[in-house]
Amino acid sequence: MSHVPDLTAVILGLILAAWLAAGAWAVWSGLAMKNKAETTLRQSGRLGRLLETSPALPLLVRSDGKLEASQRLMHWLGFGYLPAHISELHTPKAGMSREDLEGLTGDVNLAQKSGSNFTRAIKVAGSDKALLIRGGLADQKIAPNGSALLWVFDATDSEGQIEKLRDENEAARAAFDALSALIEAAPVPMWHRSSDLRLTLVNSAYVKAVDAEDGAQVIADGIELIETIDGVSPINAAAQAKEKGEPLERVVATTVGGKRRMTQVVDVPLGKSGIAGYAIDIQQLEDARREQRRFIESQREMLDKISAGVVQFDADKSLKFCNLPFQRIFSMRQQWIAERPEFPRVLDRMREMNRIPEVRDFPEWREERTDWFHSNESIEENWLLADGTHLRVIANPTPDGGLLLIFEDRTEQVQLASARDTLLRVRTATFDNLFESLAVFAADGKLNIWNHQFAKNWSLTDDELGKHPRVDALMQKMARQLKQAARISEVRDKVRTATTDRIQQAGTLSFADGRRFEYAAIPLPDGNALFTMLDISDSHRIEQALLERNEALVEADSIKASFLSNMSYEFRTPLTSIGGFAELLDNGIAGPLTEQGHEYTRAILQSVKRLGTQIDNVLDLSQSEAGALPIAKEKVNLNKLVGDIAAQFSDVLQAQKMEIVLQLDDKLGSAMADKKRLGQAIWQIVDNAVRYTGEGGRISVNGSGDVKQAVLHISDNGPGMNAGQQSRAFDSFARSRDQKAGQKKGGLGLPLARQLVIAHGGSLTLTSELGQGTLVSIHLPRQ
């Protein structure tokens, strides 16, 4: 009984021990499973991370069309969420196109049914992203029941490169085709040699040049285009080009199409690809060069004959040619020119000869002119030399890099232009300051030139005239100024006649405002017509007034002449009676007279004589002015006539202490004249001098002459006359002279003397100055 508790304890201990061992094993197993699970999670995380960062993302499409994919793939497709079904991979703004989705759906269905693999490229809508999808049937462990596993690759860069390569390939192929076509169509022979210098390709021009059937025959027979010249064959030339590694050019004569032609042959090494060659027919170029040389020679001969200096420089700035005028203008010797000096040296030589303008900095000036070689256009300058010569300089760069200079001596043209400009300014100033209205119409009827007076008289503006209107349009505007507008047609017709028929015409115009103009249309030497207008309004009014006054004066003069004639005859009858009775009384018929009575009678007789003379003078003057004075011509000794007249004044001269000096030359001679009338004229002049000279005066009479006429000068040292008195000296009814002590009436002396001299065909002039005396000159014809 005592062993029963011990057994129970043992069993209980075993149970506890077993339970403890089981717990320990469970703890250890749990820890092992935990470690394995953590390891598995870490591996899953790494795998997921690798999957997320891989260039290809999986897309699982189950048999019912449902999708399983990562968010990154959805971002590739442009979705912000995972579509539930494959049919939802197309939307207007994301996913793929409808065509791509239909194709992908077909590929997926075929893979699910047959297990075949497929590859498809798609475009993502709304972006330039390109995706490459490779798919097939999914493993049963991954997705049972016929799911499809798709691997999606981002092929955007690859597609771009592929597209670029495809475009480049197409471009290269197109370029190759175009180059091949160009070579074939080239008008010059072209060929290609392999590295062993055998012909491998020729074009149609080559075949035609060697008269072969086709290119195959040329290559098979090795027909060469170029002959062997001077031991150099075409193959040798190609070998030299290959050896030097640079193109080899040569000009040879060859036979092309049965004709001998000059040809430029070029062999071009192409490295490992062989050697290419082509031949250019330069026969026309050689002919052109020969023709150019002949042209240059003839041109230089012609340039030597012109007046302008011409010099040409090469691209290296050396003198190539200069004509004789250039050598003459710049004083350059032929020996120095033959050295072909450079352009700067030529400028230096010009400076030495003082044949360039005065410049402050000559080196800079020379450098600027040297830059003419690099100019893109012609340059023109004017040089004023120290001796006054004007040179027009034209610098023209030549296509070969040289320079052509032309020196034109424009000294005479400049002087003429200056004179012309001066004349034009003078003409313009003259036109604008003329009182007349002037306008010049061209041969086609256009207004060419006008002055300010023309515009003012016709009330035309500068804008209207500045358009140079034709005569028809201008006359329409001018017509509104006329009193009768229709008369403008006369002006237009006369201007046309002056330009077309070259006939000068004139007329008068009356303006609406009362002005009156004389106008003329005058043909000019250059084919134009001058239209001129002169305002005669004032002169017309004066003319009318003068005509009216002249009619009145003629009538008054007629009355005056009639009155004087009648009065003269009326005076003569009683005067004759007075003189007769005075003579009877003086002779004592009525009884003896005392001495004082005799003095009275003698005074009466003297007055009667003088009054009779005055009446005769009045009658003579009236007849002379009327042109009815009788002149009886005979040969008159002028020296004796003048001496006799001077003697008649001896008593008067002695009484007034005056003297008369006669200086009569033998050349005075004689003349055919009326002795009485001519003596009367000279007597009147001397008498006039005696009366107005005064006491103590001096009178001089000078006589001379020539074959055609006799000349008398009668002068005195009296008080003289002013301009007003001189203008009235020959007016028989005006005051002749003014004296300080009073005024003396002008008589008939000078007017009568002048009429008598004129009646003899001569002339009488008067010259006087206050305080210097008076000079009367008579010019009398011999016949």
From TrEMBL:
PANTHER family: HISTIDINE KINASE 1, TWO-COMPONENT HISTIDINE KINASE. The keyword Glycoprotein does not apply. InterPro entries: HATPase_C_sf (IPR036890), HATPase_dom (IPR003594), His_kinase_dom (IPR005467), HisK_dim/P_dom (IPR003661), HisK_dim/P_sf (IPR036097), Sensor_HK_Regulatory (IPR050736), Sig_transdc_His_kin-like_C (IPR004358). It is an enzyme of class 2 (transferase). It catalyses: ATP + protein L-histidine = ADP + protein N-phospho-L-histidine. This is histidine kinase. It comes from Parasphingorhabdus halotolerans. Residues 155-182 form a coiled coil. Gene3D superfamilies: 1.10.287.130, Histidine kinase-like ATPase, C-terminal domain, PAS domain. It comes from the Bacteria. Residues 566-783 form the Histidine kinase domain. The keyword Protease does not apply. Keywords: Coiled coil, Kinase, Phosphoprotein, Transferase, Two-component regulatory system. Its EC number is 2.7.13.3. GO terms for molecular function: phosphorelay sensor kinase activity. SUPFAM superfamilies: ATPase domain of HSP90 chaperone/DNA topoisomerase II/histidine kinase (SSF55874), Homodimeric domain of signal transducing histidine kinase (SSF47384).
